[in-house]
UniProtKB/TrEMBL annotation:
<feature type="binding site">
    <location>
        <begin position="26"/>
        <end position="33"/>
    </location>
    <ligand>
        <name>GTP</name>
    </ligand>
</feature>
<keyword id="KW-0547">Nucleotide-binding</keyword>
<dbReference type="InterPro" id="IPR003495">
    <property type="entry name" value="CobW/HypB/UreG_nucleotide-bd"/>
</dbReference>
<keyword id="KW-0143">Chaperone</keyword>
<protein>
    <recommendedName>
        <fullName>Urease accessory protein UreG</fullName>
    </recommendedName>
</protein>
<keyword id="KW-0963">Cytoplasm</keyword>
<feature type="domain" description="CobW/HypB/UreG nucleotide-binding">
    <location>
        <begin position="22"/>
        <end position="191"/>
    </location>
</feature>
<comment type="function">
    <text>Facilitates the functional incorporation of the urease nickel metallocenter. This process requires GTP hydrolysis, probably effectuated by UreG.</text>
</comment>
<keyword id="KW-0342">GTP-binding</keyword>
<comment type="subunit">
    <text>Homodimer. UreD, UreF and UreG form a complex that acts as a GTP-hydrolysis-dependent molecular chaperone, activating the urease apoprotein by helping to assemble the nickel containing metallocenter of UreC. The UreE protein probably delivers the nickel.</text>
</comment>
<dbReference type="InterPro" id="IPR027417">
    <property type="entry name" value="P-loop_NTPase"/>
</dbReference>
<keyword id="KW-0996">Nickel insertion</keyword>
<dbReference type="InterPro" id="IPR004400">
    <property type="entry name" value="UreG"/>
</dbReference>
<dbReference type="Pfam" id="PF02492">
    <property type="entry name" value="cobW"/>
</dbReference>
<comment type="similarity">
    <text>Belongs to the SIMIBI class G3E GTPase family. UreG subfamily.</text>
</comment>
């Protein structure tokens, strides 16, 4: 049921008969909201989708998704955490669970609910009680040494996305080095390199989501 969760205070919720819950986390500015938008555009024609966003005080990420019409407005819900984003996705997940369950009640038959975390550090990981699978997003501008520094988010998320690869030549980041370090730290878990400027649909990530949904359906 997703990545390893040391000291997770919540047990995994039964997955049968409900939408897959996909958490997207990562540092501020890594491209979580842009990736969420890209996945919605890529998958909305084939799946029933909804999104929960997390911001500490505002609804900025949800407003961005609505302005860009990636889904109908009523399928996008904003959570104001009022606290560290990590707390709201791992320690006290009640506000996010309420938002997810409200979406499922209003929109029966959903296939996928994306839960986007507020910006956090390399240790941020979703509770298995909130997310069935999770993606952690880095960007190359943060430095090519970030993957080898590890942290729960980098090492244990089901998919690591290294975003904004088009910026690598401009900021001096070595993508081959990042790939080697990520592979070593993640012990074989998958890594995707993306540039939403060059490939707006994030095909590598969309295909991974499809494969997860297919494998989940096969065992349910």
């Amino acid at each position: 049921m997703g990545a390893v969760h040391d000291h997770d205070p919540h047990t995994a919720a039964p997955a049968h008969g409900r939408a897959l819950r996909l958490g997207i986390g990562g540092p501020v500015g890594s491209g979580k909201t842009a990736l969420t938008a890209a996945l919605c555009r890529a998958l909305r024609g084939e799946l029933g989708l909804a999104v929960v966003t997390n911001d500490i005080y505002t609804t900025e990420d949800a407003d961005f998704l609505r302005r860009n019409a990636v889904l109908p407005d009523e399928r996008i819900t904003a959570v104001r955490t009022g606290c560290c984003p990590h707390t709201a996705i791992r320690d006290d997940i009640s506000a996010n669970l309420d938002a997810v369950e409200a979406l499922e009640e209003r929109h029966p038959g959903l296939d996928l609910i994306i839960i986007e975390s507020g910006g956090d550090n390399l240790t941020a990981l979703f509770s298995q009680g909130l997310a069935d699978r999770q993606i952690f997003v880095l960007d190359v501008a943060g430095g090519d040494d970030v993957p080898r520094k590890g942290g729960l988010g980098v090492a244990a998320a089901d998919l690591l996305v290294i975003n904004k690869t088009d910026l690598a030549p401009l900021v001096g980041s070595d993508l081959d080095l990042m790939a080697r370090d990520a592979s070593r730290v993640r012990d074989g878990r998958p890594v995707a390199f993306t540039s939403l400027r060059e490939r707006p649909g994030a095909p590598e990530v969309a295909d991974w989501v499809r494969s997860v949904l297919h494998s989940t359906a096969a065992v349910s």
